[in-house]
């Protein structure tokens, strides 16, 4: 059976189990099992919220008999105060959270799809959710941060702090660039993720993705990554010449 069919069927099965309990109001899916089911593939998993009546949240968090009734669990790990990450015996992986209605007002999520609800429950607004944007409108700030992080990172590499250097050069500047990439390159409309700009970046920003490997050469080649990153920054922005020369000199020192 195709993975998509299995995932959607498992959600429906969970809904049927919850329907027989009088203290559950709704079950809705998120992510690829939310409103983006067209992108489900063989590596997708379950992400869902269960909405319960007041006073019953902890019972569903602490006791997973409702999931075991759906299908036996092979593994579960309580990853937050509100839920677990789970693996069913048949290999289906997922994560969930349990909420009471008031909790949803401060929860960060978006794009829910109702799987099951009590007929008397009518608040469809819970499916909308909210998440602050990860996008930035300030290229100046992102470039400035990238340049200074590269410089600091190379200094750390030079003194032997390679892991810290890797994060300053191969992580922080890339995150910054991803936040303004929509201003630098036309974005292909392919399921942007409000929780992570790096998701599906290869399809959303193919031009940037084609040069990423040079900027991400790894633990022992951070100076090489720094030069590739600087080269890219110089292509998209008028980089201060003194900062550029300082970075290149420091990178060359690190390579030697």
Give a structural overview.
- With 256 residues, this protein is α+β, with helices and mostly antiparallel strands.
- It has two domains: 3-130, 2-Layer Sandwich (Beta Polymerase, domain 2), CATH 3.30.460; 139-255.
- It has nine helices and eight strands.
- The strands form two sheets. It has a six-stranded mixed beta sheet with strand order 3-4-5-2-1-7.
- A hairpin with a 2-residue loop joins strand 3 and strand 4.
- Helix 4 packs antiparallel against helix 5 (162-184) and helix 4 (139-158) runs antiparallel to helix 8 (222-236).
Strand order of the largest sheet: 3-4-5-2-1-7
Gross morphology is elongated
CATH architecture of the largest domain: 2-Layer Sandwich
Helix content: 40-55%
Mean pLDDT: 93
Say what the CATH topology of the largest domain is.
Beta Polymerase, domain 2
**CATH classification, class level of the largest domain:** Alpha Beta
Can you tag this structure with a few keywords?
256 residues, alpha+beta, Beta Polymerase, domain 2, 2 domains, six-stranded mixed sheet, two-stranded antiparallel sheet, 8 strands, elongated, NT_sf, Nucleotidyltransferase domain-containing protein
List the helices and strands and how they pair.
Elements: H1 3-19, E1 24-29, E2 46-52, H2 57-62, H3 65-70, E3 73-80, E4 83-88, E5 93-100, E6 109-110, E7 113-117, E8 129-130, H4 139-158, H5 162-184, H6 201-204, H7 206-215, H8 222-236, H9 241-255
Parallel strand pairs: 2-5
Antiparallel strand pairs: 1-2, 1-7, 3-4, 4-5, 6-8
Helix pairs in contact: 4-5, 4-8, 4-9, 5-8, 8-9
Organism: Paenibacillus monticola
Protein name: Nucleotidyltransferase domain-containing protein
InterPro entries: NT_sf (IPR043519)
């Amino acid at each position: 059976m195709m993975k998509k069919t299995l995932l959607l069927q498992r959600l429906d099965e969970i809904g049927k189990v919850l329907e027989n309990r009088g203290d559950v109001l709704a079950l809705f899916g998120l992510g690829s099992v939310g409103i983006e089911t067209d992108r489900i593939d063989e590596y997708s998993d379950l992400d869902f919220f269960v909405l319960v009546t007041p006073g019953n949240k902890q019972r569903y968090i602490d006791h997973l008999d409702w999931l075991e009734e759906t299908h036996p669990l092979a593994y579960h790990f309580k990853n937050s105060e509100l839920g677990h990450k789970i693996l069913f015996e048949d290999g289906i992986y997922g994560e969930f959270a349990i909420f009471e209605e008031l909790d949803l007002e401060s929860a960060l999520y978006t794009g829910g799809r109702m799987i099951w609800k009590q007929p008397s429950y009518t608040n469809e607004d819970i499916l909308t959710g909210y998440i602050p944007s990860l996008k930035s409108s300030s290229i100046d700030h992102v470039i400035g941060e990238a340049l200074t992080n590269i410089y600091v990172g190379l200094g750390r590499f030079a003194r032997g702090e390679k892991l810290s250097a890797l994060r300053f050069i191969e992580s922080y500047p890339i995150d910054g660039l991803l936040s303004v990439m929509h201003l630098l390159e036309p974005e292909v409309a392919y399921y942007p993720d409000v929780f992570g700009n790096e998701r599906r970046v290869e399809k959303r920003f193919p031009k940037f993705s084609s040069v990423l490997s040079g900027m991400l050469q790894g633990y022992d080649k951070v100076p090489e990554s720094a030069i590739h990153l600087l080269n890219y920054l110089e292509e998209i922005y008028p980089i201060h010449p003194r900062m550029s020369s300082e970075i290149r000199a420091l990178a060359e020192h690190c390579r030697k």
